[in-house]
Amino acid sequence: MNQTPYKRKIYLEDKPRAEAREEILAASRLTPEIEHLAVAEALGRVTAEPIFARVSMPHYHASAMDGIAVVAERTYQAHEQNPLFLKIGADFCFVDTGNAIPSPFNAVIMIEHVHVVDEETIEIIEPATPWQHIRPIGEDIVQEEMLFPQGHQLRPADLGVLLAAQQLVIPVVKKPVVAIIPTGNELVEASAALSSGKIIEFNGTVFSGFIKDWGGEPRLHSIVKDEPEKIKEVLLEAAETADIIVINAGSSAGRKDFTVHIIGELGEVYTHGVAARPGKPTVLGKINGKIVVGVPGYPVSAYLALEWFVQPLVCQYLGVPVPQRQKVTVKLGRRIVSSMGAEDFVRMNIGYVDGQFVANPLTRAAGVTMSYVRADGLLIVPPNIIGYEQGDFAEVELLRPLEEIKEAIVFSGSHDLTIDLLSSQLKRVRTDMKIVSSHVGSMAGIMAIRKGEAHVAGIHLLDPDTKQYNISYVRKLLAGQDVILYPFLKRKQGWILPKGNPLEISAVTDLVRTDANFVNRQKGAGTRILFDLLLKETGLEPEAITGYDREMFSHLAVAAEVNGDGNGAGLGIYPAAKAMGLDFVPVADEEYDLVMKRSFFESEHGRLLVEIIQSAAFREQVEKIGGYEVVGNAELKSLAD
Amino acid sequence: MNQTPYKRKIYLEDKPRAEAREEILAASRLTPEIEHLAVAEALGRVTAEPIFARVSMPHYHASAMDGIAVVAERTYQAHEQNPLFLKIGADFCFVDTGNAIPSPFNAVIMIEHVHVVDEETIEIIEPATPWQHIRPIGEDIVQEEMLFPQGHQLRPADLGVLLAAQQLVIPVVKKPVVAIIPTGNELVEASAALSSGKIIEFNGTVFSGFIKDWGGEPRLHSIVKDEPEKIKEVLLEAAETADIIVINAGSSAGRKDFTVHIIGELGEVYTHGVAARPGKPTVLGKINGKIVVGVPGYPVSAYLALEWFVQPLVCQYLGVPVPQRQKVTVKLGRRIVSSMGAEDFVRMNIGYVDGQFVANPLTRAAGVTMSYVRADGLLIVPPNIIGYEQGDFAEVELLRPLEEIKEAIVFSGSHDLTIDLLSSQLKRVRTDMKIVSSHVGSMAGIMAIRKGEAHVAGIHLLDPDTKQYNISYVRKLLAGQDVILYPFLKRKQGWILPKGNPLEISAVTDLVRTDANFVNRQKGAGTRILFDLLLKETGLEPEAITGYDREMFSHLAVAAEVNGDGNGAGLGIYPAAKAMGLDFVPVADEEYDLVMKRSFFESEHGRLLVEIIQSAAFREQVEKIGGYEVVGNAELKSLAD
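^ inputs. structure came back:
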């Protein structure tokens, strides 16, 4: 909160990302420093010069077999009908694989083809040809050959070749130092006590991790206040001691966004605003010969901007290409809208269902870090495309290994806290498997099964007519599909209320009576359908409820909103209330079942899932939470009409 | 060399690799140790337990925009025809993105939609809806949600989420300690002076690199002599202090291969010999609860065995899946023969030519480390397949990034030392490009162009009739193809001879006169064709030449063989002799040209190649070597009849 009047520059450029990148790469012409390292210390480092072999390997004529060394020309008479007897020392000597062949010998006979007569004599019945079973000098490495060019990132086996060629200390490119400067009055260190309006500074640690992964050396500065003079001082110091400078936040065009002005004052600005979302409010400039990248404050924007501009600078310094992510073609589960004239970076969940990759966008909000953490891939919508229709195929860059995506069980539907536990248990049994879940609500879960976008959907849908859970919905919405309904959990739904229930809420009418700040769930969520049913039974209209339109996507999110609001109220499951130390007034015992295609249910993954649900370990974990009963091993619910 | 009589067990098992692996994974049931690390130290480490959020992010109602905070219900009357004037403090306050929304405000209006009247008053013409532009508590992270399960390898952005959720110190799995024990009387440390029969111990450093890459902690022991008592002592000590033990060499069935006996004596042996090549002579056992992997001595066998058995053990300890390599389907340029009943791991060069991946096997010799270093991929021939025909398609696992393979210029044909320089220069200009060369000789180079397996072939083929280089061969062998012949180098061919030329060789007849140890080149090599021509002109038969059948694949390899043999002699280029300090007697000035398809010559890559050949920097480098003249910028040779 700030009471000063508003002064700002509202507009940013929309410079194409590639153009902005090429400009700074051309402007940054540092000569990389070289350091000399012992080979064992050089793993992952980048050669600064071509490296040539100092010796050959083998560096002598070596036996390629266990056997005897002979003079080939003296064995030419040997034949099955004419065995040749050789005397040790004079005619032959024993050699093992790798042994040097002593003069005058020039061939090796394998031990399997030799008959030992006595300690001094052997018999052979076949001649040897010159140089047989002898490794030529330099068979592996030839002295003076180029082992690696400059710009080669050293892998484990490369170190062996260097040692073998007697290159023991090698020139590698110094890791470029990247100064990371977090700015903002709202920032506090992670260890600080939190208060309203304060944000933990974590981007710096994330940037440091990226820089390390890319082969640079991060140097993380302490938090700098939003004071232009202080920021200038820190930037000038960084321009002396670092090779690349990253300054976080203040890069937009708001009244506290000093970055662009300061860079312009101390050096030059190349770009203010790139045609890419999120990440648009990026500043690119140079101070005293060092490139400065001003990245936006929102985490996802920041990570993308870092990748677009700082990774290429690090790679340019090292003399290596920018690594490319593996790509895969996916079918889009939803329509994706994009703006003309700008690239859109859409974080995607990808599932592998029925032999096809299916992808759905996660939230587009740049402030939602978890959307980046949870994403399996990035869909990059080019500037000249306004989006894709549902069902279109598109190429995405993978943020996780392909195998991890292929082995994941895709879970859709209603949110329940036990799904994470289930995933964790699954991973204990099979480290290469997990459950990827998206909380879209029961109805959307059913639709995901129908569209082949999920393996399993969790649903809890009360039929107002039959008073039965789930069965009628599955019958109707998945008619004609070979699906099963697996009874998973019974759980308690009820009012989630501030500690002590100050408004004394125990029924929907109490919400109206007290004008409580209700927190609702999204459309299609089983809990919302339950709430609507409660309203209908009471004869109330949605308009009577304050906050009816305030939609959250999970029970925990509802509880989090209620937490700290003395007038708050929500509807959700018991463990969500318990987790936040809130009050809970039960409303219904509901049946939370799993819908699956029969083919999945009967597959190896499906069987494993059921096995884990039925395990004592999982049941114990769930029942310890409270408010649950694992049904798990009952019969499938009948879907017959 | 060893004069003791021979005692050995000749046969090894042929156990399927997967079976052998499952056995040791089942036998190794260590409980991983946990350590607690500060988040910033935990990059790349693996979570030991599920980790839950301690606080929400945002942990307060935060403005999602720069603007003003208002009470939504008090703005409902605002309209273009009915502007509403609000007073600071009472009716609104200014907020920036991320600021906390103070009570009683419950909505934000973007600054763009606000008209500032004076320092205390603003005007709005549109109502706000409750909670608009306010980030709900937990929009990103909800307190108590599971952030990561156990077995999650932490990436940069994950660290941010942990800090934001106030998980500052987290439980990770300790890196499993892998003891690496090199054994062998023939081994010397890399810094030692080399003598015949001594081999530099480099596998230990390579293993350490692999273990680090896989997330373990290598502990490399000094070299242990081939003495059973000493080996026992070291193994028992390792079983106390390490989690996994690797012992290098002595794993086969020769007379000094003690490993299997010692493991059997100290613990139990599960496997001695796996059905996979190279890498068959592997021993798997257990001593005092720790798995021991005895890997073969030949480098390529050793690296493969390590990957097959040690990587899964490390991953099992960490609780993560074994990473899979990216795969790609390639067309095979040559026939590949494999043995029934065993898997074959064939190192492959892969080129991307005319939009297709084409792959050729490198040497199958397990002792040739460079074949592993140079390989782009591994073709794994299953045990029930006896191989593939030329032109078949097969899937290979990539050892390099796909993009690196796609951007490489594939060079085939005759060996020349300048090709590495050319590649190095190319990489200076475009870090994502390089030349991948295989030395197959001029004739095979032409065939590679014909079959679409290479972009460029280097050839030097003298036509005995026309006395012209290259033209007649290209006309005949590439008839009907749209190719060009680019004049690249003139270079000196001659006799490569021991220092001082003790045998006084200056003609092919001198080889016969002195019975010199001749070192020849492989069939199809231009140098061999030249030698055959010399023989023919002299009226000599190949049988007259000692060593005619001793074939090397490069000029340097010929020089390496001549080096140190007072009776040696070879035919090759001047710089090879010079590099090894050998004598050189010129025989011919030859024209070394480049054949390319016209489409490649005119492509971006082709133009870049020519540009670098014509650069002063490249010419200087080449002419500094001696024996060369870069032709480079002359006209293309005419191929018209």
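Confidence is low (pLDDT under 50) at residues 1-7 of chain B. Chain B has 18 helices and 37 strands.
thumbs up if we can close this ticket
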